[in-house]
Amino acid sequence: MLNYLEQTPSIYSAVVKAIIAFLPALIANCLPVLAIGKIVKKPTPVDLDHRFIDGRPILGRSKSWEGLILGVAGGFIVGLGYSAVLGNVLWTVYGGLMGFGAMFGDALNSFIKRRLNIPPGEPFIPMDQLSFILVAYVLVKALNLDILVGLTLSLTELAIIVYVTLVLHPLTNLIAYKLGLKDKPW
């Protein structure tokens, strides 16, 4: 299927390829919102409530170990599925790294928000929507994992997924808010 997408020059195939390529990061980014607070009642903050040299929280209570583990596991599981379907075990590594990149990018976004005195849950556009995608992309490209699994991620796929994410992120946040999974609709 991926070979077909690589050889079929249409906007449809480019969008499908981008979504397939970034699905582990997309899943990793949304899983913690679904579980933390509903399944895990008292999550453990990644920063263990420590403060940075500026006196503000390093990341804040919204970044938890449980969410981090769940996000990376989600990316890994998507990669495991790709491995089973496509017959290349490196997809598992790809998915896990995409999941880790998404979680690291989200944590980096929180770190920057705390430095700028933006409270958890308050919007920081466009970084809230893009930090997880950008860090996942950089990690995969830095290790050439896209090439190793037979998928060439170009700036075109990155641009497509950025556009898709900028459209879907507000929509999924609104849905999570309506379902009571988030306190705010952004």
Could you give the topology of this structure?
Blueprint: H1 2-7, H2 11-35, H3 65-86, H4 90-115, H5 127-142, H6 145-148, H7 155-178
Helix pairs in contact: 2-3, 2-4, 2-5, 2-7, 3-4, 4-5, 5-7
Distance between the termini: 35 Å
Q: Radius of gyration in whole Å, from Cα?
A: 17 Å
Q: Based on helices, strands and strand pairing, what is the structural class?
A: mainly alpha
What is the strand tally?
A: 0
Please tally the helical runs, counting DSSP H or I stretches of 4 or more residues: 7
How would the global form be characterised? Answer: globular
Q: How much of the residues is beta strand, in percent?
A: under 5%
Write up this protein.
The protein has 186 residues and is mainly alpha-helical. The chain has one domain. Helices cover 66% and strands 0% of the residues. It has 7 helices and no strands. The chain is globular, with a radius of gyration of 17 Å. The termini are far apart. The model has no long low-confidence stretch (mean pLDDT 89).
Key attributes of the depicted protein:
mainly alpha
Give a concise summary:
The chain has helices at 2-7, 11-35, 65-86, 90-115, 127-142, 145-148, 155-178.
